[in-house]
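--- STAGE predict ---
source: upstream dedup step, 1 unique chain passed
mode: sequence only
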Amino acid sequence: MRRDALYLADIVEAADAVAEFVQGLRKETFIGHKMARSAVLQQLTVIGEAAARLSREFRNRHSDVEWPDIVAFRNIAVHAYFSVDWATAWVAATGDAPALREKVVAILATEFPDVRLPDGPGQVQEG
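--- STAGE serialize ---
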C-alpha cells in the first residue's frame, strides 16, 4: 500500500498542473476552452482520487482540510461529467487547488520531511 505522503505529493503535483493550465486565462476563456477544461478536470480528478486514498486516520488527523468535499468533486467529475458546472470547476482550479496545495506542502514538510517534490514534471522521491 502506498504511503499517505505519496498521495499528498500527487495532490501537489496535480495542483501545480492545474495552475499551469489556467495561467493567463480568464474565467470566460476557461469555460469556452474545451482542452483547458478537460486538462483541469483531469487534474482535479487526480486530486480527488489521491484524497480518497489517504488513510482514514490521516484524514481524521487533518480534519481542517475538507477531504469529503474534495472527494465529492472527484465523484461528480467522474460519474456525472456532463453535469460539471464549469464555473465551479474554475473556482476549484483558481482558489481551492492552490489553497489545498499550500496546506498539503505544509503537512509534507512537518510530517513527511523525507518526501521531496520534484522541481518539474517527474516522480516524487523519498529520501
